[in-house]
Amino acid sequence: MQRVIDEVAAHVMRIQIRLFACRERLRATTDDEALHDLRIAVRELRSLLRPLAARADCVDLLQCAAALGGLTGPLRDLEVLQRYLRVHGLGAAAQSRQSALEHGYAELLDSPSLTALLQALDDWPQQWREAAANGELRVLPKLIRKRLQKDHQRLLQALLDPAHDRHRLRLLVKRLRYASAAYPQLSELSGRTLAHLKQAQSALGDWHDHWQWLLRAETETDLQPCVAAWREAMQREEQLADQALEVLAADLAADDR
After folding, report:
1. Which of residues 105, 138, 171 is at a domain's end?
2. Pair (8, 129) in one structural domain
3. How far apart are CA 39 and CA 108, in angstroms?
4. Per-residue pLDDT tens for 96-116?
């Protein structure tokens, strides 16, 4: 139990350091991966805390992380699209979105959401230490295992539903994968299942990117030259995603026995 308590505290501290670094990289505009890395850090924090959502000392931190994740999502989508356009020789379309990206970075750096999360991270260690000292964290491993099992069952049930929604499956796959990565010592998933979770997430992510871009193309006319290729790619990725999800469903059912 004490090991889990210490590991959660250390993990939160590592994420905090990474978030500070990502913020400075965004300010300095030193690389193209700063926003992506910031989102990964926030996602890891949410995955770490979600099994602990019933605890008062984690609620504020989890809410702040969720707010920042929601704020950065559309900006990351624009960043990925702009990079695709640049790489594929659509310089005018890429350049026309550059100012929106730069404005989005500036807004993010000055946002109350980022400030609130960093402040909550400063406040949280003391709350966690007090909870540990008061014996409130004795049930931590049980709480985490229960949440991991719930995420496992929720994803398996969704995969077995003939009318499953790929958008929801993508979120459920990510949730189980990152929660299992946050608590490897408490996860009951096999290495094979973890590998196939990653594969399914990648396939669904590629499909989701093209689905989003096709939606944008309905109103952003400079994207029309890409529509035919995007439709073809999305159909191919649907097939790959469905194959990956079929394999994953078998893995999860086997791990559930």
Report:
1. 138
2. yes
3. 12
4. 999 999 999 999 999 999 999
10 and 128, same domain (yes or no): yes
* Confidence (pTM): 0.91
Residue owning tokens 């499956």: 169
Among the candidates 97, 117, 138, a domain finishes at 138
Structural domain count of the chain = 2
Domain that holds residue 51: 1-138
What is the spatial distance between Cα 19 and Cα 39, in angstroms, rounded to a whole number?
Answer: 9
Task: Please check whether residue 127 is in contact with residue 57, taking contact to mean a CB–CB distance below 8 angstroms.
Answer: yes
Q: Do the Cβ atoms of 93 and 216 come closer than 8 Å?
A: no
Residue 114: how many CB atoms within 10 A of its CB?
Answer: 23
pLDDT in tens, 59-81: 999 999 999 999 999 999 999 99
Which of helix, strand or coil describes residue 165?
coil
Identify the three-state secondary structure at position 198. helix
Structure tokens at 200: 């399914």
Distance CA(123)–CA(140), nearest Å, equals 20
